[in-house]
Amino acid sequence: MAGALPEGDPAPADGSLPESARIGAEDRAFGVYVHVPYCRVRCGYCDFNTYTASELGGTSRADYADQVRRELAFGADAMRRGGIPHRPVSTVFFGGGTPTLLPARDLAAMLGGIREEWGLAAGAEITTEANPDSVDADYLGALAEAGFTRVSFGMQSAVPSVLATLDRTHTPERVPLVTRWAREAGLQVSVDLIYGTPGESLADWERSIDAALATEPDHISAYALIVERGTKLAAQIRRGEVPAPDEDLHAEMYELADARFAAAGFSWYEISNWARSADTRSRHNLSYWTGEDWWAAGPGAHSHIGGTRWWNVKHPGAYAQRIAAGVSPAHAREVLTPEARREERILLETRIADGLPTDALTADERRAVPGLIADGLIDGRAALPGRGAGAVGTGRVIPTLRGRLLADTVVHRLLAG
């Protein structure tokens, strides 16, 4: 299970939103995230808000779809009462946990609740995460029939010893099967990889890259392993049972992945994400990086509407009690100041290939741009006024490959002015 939730201001029991949340809402896209907190086993590296069967404390997975639908109805009502203009949902993402541990009819029912409360925009992107061993061809066909458009498989690695270190339950041979079944059902396919697992060599990582590309996905995510406090993996490293991750090897692995993905026709659009085309980018994830609005349902889920952010109680039992009582499941919230939102925009938009407009920076912050160009951390041509992609009269702060590897440095230097 994840650590403690962040502290914040009290969240209103009726879900009411401040007046600031509706300012400019008509210009922002609206998405929905559904957290499904169930896992068959706990992976040793994971600190997400997930629960195995023995940790549910008497709550039942069979009731979960109905609980989420009730939160969705609560959310739609709260937004109406807050004067938030109606917007159909442009993206939906079911994450976890393992959403596909639930029957496909339950995912379809929750998606149906989203349709009923807000409606779906034309061409809406609807994704679920899935473990390779949690679905079969019939299940994927049922998702497509229900309206899902995309599935993201947690492949992680093609090397059995690496999967064992990560406590993954599938075999490498399963991934080509499920990706083929998904394509045959008419779903876009994304595969998620993790690099830098203790004991993983560069040759192991190259083997996983090759295996991922062989599945002919539409989208690939590749994340550096982060050792989170309180996880089984952190304890193993502390006891000396496995080696700590090597940052230099992480960088070498990232550079190899970026080169191999590019050679296969993929373009990076966020530091850890590559797509075959603009049409196969994850629009839902882009909405997080560009500050759009989303309602997030489920235990521990984090929502954002117009600079107001709140997070639900963690445990499925506590969540079920709040839903049954007809009150907000939110644990706490924060209302970001305009300056905090501006700084968060710098943090997020300097991670994406579309970049950050330089006119979003203060005069002091813009003075850092020439040094970042000189140090090879941002694209000098894009930073020139009128030269950035789609820009008129302004440049863009777009990280180079070196800048992607040193993303925190880019942000620190900009904010330091």
TrEMBL record:
Residue ranges annotated for the Radical SAM core domain, each copy included:
24-267
Which NCBIfam families does the entry mention? hemN_rel
Please give the chief subcellular localization of this protein: cytoplasm
Q: According to its UniProt record, where is this protein located?
A: Cytoplasm
Note the superkingdom of the native organism.
Answer: Bacteria
Q: Name one Pfam family in it.
A: Radical_SAM
Recorded protein name is: Heme chaperone HemW
